[in-house]
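Page 42, continued from yesterday. The earlier attempt failed because a stray header line got pasted into the input along with the sequence. Redoing it now with the clean sequence only.
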Amino acid sequence: MKTVRAIKRLFTELPQPARTFYWFSIALFLATFLLGVVTRVNWVFLGISGSGVFLFLFGWHVFRDINGTASIWSRIYRESRGIRPEGFTFADVPTIRGMGFMYMLMGIFFVVGGFGFLFQA
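This time it went through. Structure tokens are written below.
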């Protein structure tokens, strides 16, 4: 239950524009996935690529800790687990910045994969 509350707080308390990029990446992916299931049209992969762009931008904000995005993420995790602010956890800022780098790689994968499938068909 603590994890669900922490995820809810991430969706609402991350600084702008990182929160917007996070929401847009998820919404665009789900919308284009559902559109692709219904229509079975290959151009839907452009939406997947767009989702990758937003995912990359979100990862960039976390990786560079722009507006304190990684710091806020770490604080939310610590508060949800009841860990003191100076206590050690795997969700320290350098680790979360590494997660931001992984989000950037996933975004690049989505962009390349979306365009690759679009031009393959």
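Notes: DSSP finds five helices and no strands in the chain.
Reminder to self: strip header lines before submitting.
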